[in-house]
TrEMBL record, chain A:
The keyword ATP-binding applies. The keyword tRNA-binding does not apply. Belongs to the ABC transporter superfamily. Keywords: ATP-binding, Nucleotide-binding, Transport. This is ABC transporter ATP-binding protein. GO terms for cellular component: ATP-binding cassette (ABC) transporter complex. Residues 6-236 form the ABC transporter domain. GO terms for biological process: quaternary ammonium group transport. InterPro entries: AAA+_ATPase, ABC_SmlMolc_Importer, ABC_transporter-like_ATP-bd, ABC_transporter-like_CS, Mo/tungstate-bd_C_term_dom, P-loop_NTPase, Transp-assoc_OB_typ2. The lineage of its organism: Bacteria, Pseudomonadati, Pseudomonadota, Alphaproteobacteria, Hyphomicrobiales. Involved in beta-(1-->2)glucan export. Transmembrane domains (TMD) form a pore in the inner membrane and the ATP-binding domain (NBD) is responsible for energy generation. It comes from Bradyrhizobium niftali.
TrEMBL record, chain B:
It holds the Pfam family BPD_transp_1. Keywords: Cell membrane, Membrane, Transmembrane, Transmembrane helix, Transport. This is ABC transporter permease. CDD domains: TM_PBP2 (cd06261). The chain crosses the membrane at residues 16-38, 77-98, 107-128, 140-163, 184-207, 241-264. It comes from Bradyrhizobium niftali. It is a multi-pass membrane protein. Belongs to the binding-protein-dependent transport system permease family. CysTW subfamily. Residues 73-260 form the ABC transmembrane type-1 domain. The lineage of its organism: Bacteria, Pseudomonadati, Pseudomonadota, Alphaproteobacteria, Hyphomicrobiales.
């Protein structure tokens, strides 16, 4: 028997005027890093607040290590939250912030001082004990918030959009920091974010959420390479989407017909009778075919091109009117097609994925 | 020289214009008060030009011998302190209630703020009649009740402003770190609102100190300062009244200045903390 999950949600629903979270069940195994990934309004913050005890679910149970704690207030739960705006205490020093939880627990001053000093060393803030919060940089504040939660050695650490609102350099630095703390302290972490890069680089497991429902649960690799449907696909970067005229099942490959061309596709991993299939492709894996080369799809008319730094985005249209955007390298050696010109494209050796068209609500 | 530059005070002419307007406005605002101060030092000043030798503090010393004035001062201080001591926590409660409300917030705020616009004489008369029905004899207590009604909306507004500066996430964080609701309130909300709570107290005290219309109906045998002044003026302006007005002006300005200086000092001291003062 494996030990019970650090956190388990059992058919949790939260309804305001309408359901925000609908019948969600999930588990966060001990010592793992799980990320709930979803766009704004998908209910991910609501889930975090229900786990933290700040919101009561309308239905369902929340269990910590197998014990039902649905009815407990935040101060009685074995988890700590890093809030999106951190919630640091502006009237206290860095040390007082970090020691606050210990003080509330009645830990004696000598032990408080020792734990606080140790924790500040772990987050590389030695010597900042007497600083005020407003004297710190954004990254330092994040680390104070981390130290303040981790000093209590919580069974689970909850992160609400941990890297949102930071500049790129700081984001990378902090991402490393969180990853390091996770490994060093063996903490169980549940994060919510709308940022796919954050989710991919930090997590053992990703839960993709849309409109209060789980669309997919899997490892970063699974979610990134085998998205369950067109919604998840678009969220993890399969931005090139085509609607086929028809789809034929096969033994090894399936075949789809788009604008009169036969296209070999990966067989679908999930089947959903409520939706038609769509073909999804990574826009950066598409290139323009040489005139002598056998193309995968065409002809397409180039509508416009836009320089994006590393890539050039090509907006094109198929003969059946479908639009397709893809990226070509911005290297000087790669020719950028003129607007209005006719092109053919290649995506071999990649095969398009066939996924249920769940972009619209069923 | 563009019109825009003049309006923005970027030209020397523009700057002069606005300095003059500002100085004039301030002079008009404070002239009556300053005139009163002048007259308190020399009651003849109101009649015209007089030799400066006749300015003296003698009317201020005369105040000290006025037993009725001392009684009124004591009464006003008592009423003011009682009013401020009650209005501050009740105003804070109202602000907390407003923050916690999800429905009817606007109505709640409107009802609280409307009390600012009830005419003093009407409120005083109504309250005096009501308190008589209840069997409460007119005394400093009845005045304090009237002043509580008068100062509450102001106290509530000052608390609301203070509370709006307290981020909900700081309170949530305290709860998250193990504090119960009361502990979080004492450790986080109250310290973060300290400035506003002090302002609320001082504001309520000064409002009570200067209130006359309600006190007129609610006072027992002992008058408050404004009532005493009003009575004294009716029996002919005496030099002591000017001296007394002067005292009120100086004391009010001093109190406000002290509180303000204290708050500013506290703010600027905040970042620098004495070594060893950190309490873990």
């Amino acid at each position: 028997m494996s030990s019970p999950a650090a956190i388990a949600l059992d058919r949790v629903t939260k309804v305001y005027d309408k359901p925000v979270v609908s019948d969600i069940s999930l588990e966060v195994p001990e010592g793992s890093f799980v990320t709930v990934l979803g766009p704004s309004g998908s209910g991910k913050s609501t889930i975090l607040q229900m786990i933290g005890g700040f919101l009561q679910p309308t239905a369902g149970r929340i269990l910590f290590a197998g014990t039902d704690m649905t009815a407990l207030p935040p101060n009685k739960r074995p988890c700590n939250t890093i809030f999106q705006d951190l919630g640091l205490f502006p009237h206290m020093t860095v040390a007082e912030n970090v020691a606050y939880g210990l003080k509330v627990r009645g830990v004696d001053p000598a032990t408080r001082r020792k734990c606080t000093t140790e924790m500040l060393a772990i987050v590389a803030l030695e010597g900042y004990e007497r600083r005020r919060i407003h004297q710190l940089s954004g990254g330092q504040r994040q680390r104070v918030a981390l130290a303040r939660a981790l000093v209590l050695d919580p069974a689970v650490l909850l992160l609400d959009e941990p890297l949102t609102g930071l500049d790129e350099r700081l984001r990378q630095q902090l991402r490393g920091e969180i990853s390091r703390l996770h490994r060093r302290l063996g903490a169980t972490i549940l994060a919510v974010t709308h940022n796919q890069d954050e989710a991919l680089s930090l997590s053992d497991r990703i839960i993709v959420l849309r409109a209060g429902r789980i669309e997919q649960i899997g490892t970063p690799r699974e979610v990134f390479e085998r998205p369950a449907n067109a919604f998840v696909a678009r969220f993890v970067g399969f931005d090139a989407i085509l609607k086929p005229e028809r789809v034929d099942s096969g033994i090894a490959d399936w075949h789809a017909r788009v604008a009169g061309r036969d296209i070999r596709c990966e067989p679908p991993v999930s089947r959903d009778p409520a939706h038609d299939y769509v073909l999804v492709l990574r826009p950066e894996r598409i290139r323009i075919a040489d005139p002598k080369e056998r193309s995968d799809l065409g002809p397409l008319t180039v509508i416009s091109t836009a320089y994006k730094g590393r890539d050039v985005e090509v907006e094109s249209r198929l003969v059946d009117g479908q639009a397709l955007k893809f990226l070509i390298s911005a290297d000087p050696g790669v020719a950028v097609p003129a607007s209005g010109s006719s092109i053919e494209i290649v995506w071999e050796p990649m095969k398009p994925l066939l996924l249920p068209d769940a972009l619209v609500e069923p | 020289m563009s019109f825009d530059a003049i309006v923005r005070g970027r030209t020397s002419g523009g700057r002069l214009l606005f300095t003059t307007i500002t100085a004039l406005s301030l002079a008009i605002m404070y002239a009556p008060v300053l005139y009163l101060l002048l007259a308190s030092l020399n009651p003849d000043a109101q009649l015209g030009l007089v030799p400066p030798s006749r300015y003296s503090l003698k009317w201020y010393f005369a105040l000290l011998d006025d037993g009725r004035l001392a009684g009124a001062l004591k009464e006003s201080a008592l009423v003011g302190l009682a009013t401020a001591a009650l209005a501050t926590p009740i105003g804070l409660s109202a602000a907390l209630a407003y923050r916690a409300m999800t429905r009817l917030r606007g109505v709640f705020l409107l009802v609280i703020l409307s009390a600012m616009f009830v005419p003093g004489t009407i409120e005083g008369l109504g309250l005096s009649a009501t308190l008589r029905v209840v069997g409460l004899a007119p005394s400093w207590v009845t005045i304090a009740i009237g002043h509580l009604l008068w100062t509450l909306p102001f106290a509530a507004v000052v608390s609301l402003i203070g509370l709006s500066a307290v981020r909900p996430s700081t309170i949530a964080a305290a709860r998250d770190l193990g504090a119960g609701p009361i502990r979080a309130f004492v450790d986080i909300t109250l310290p973060l609102m300290r400035t506003n709570l002090i302002s609320s107290f001082v504001f309520a005290f000064l409002l009570s100190l200067n209130e006359q219309a309600r006190a007129y109906y609610l006072a027992g045998r002992q008058n408050t300062l404004p009532l005493y002044m009003f009575g004294a003026m009716n029996s002919g302006a005496s030099p002591t009244i000017y001296a007394f007005s002067g005292t009120i002006i100086v004391v009010s300005v001093a109190v406000v200045a002290l509180v303000f200086a204290g708050l500013v000092g506290q703010q600027s001291r905040r970042p620098r903390q004495a070594p060893g003062k950190t309490s873990y």
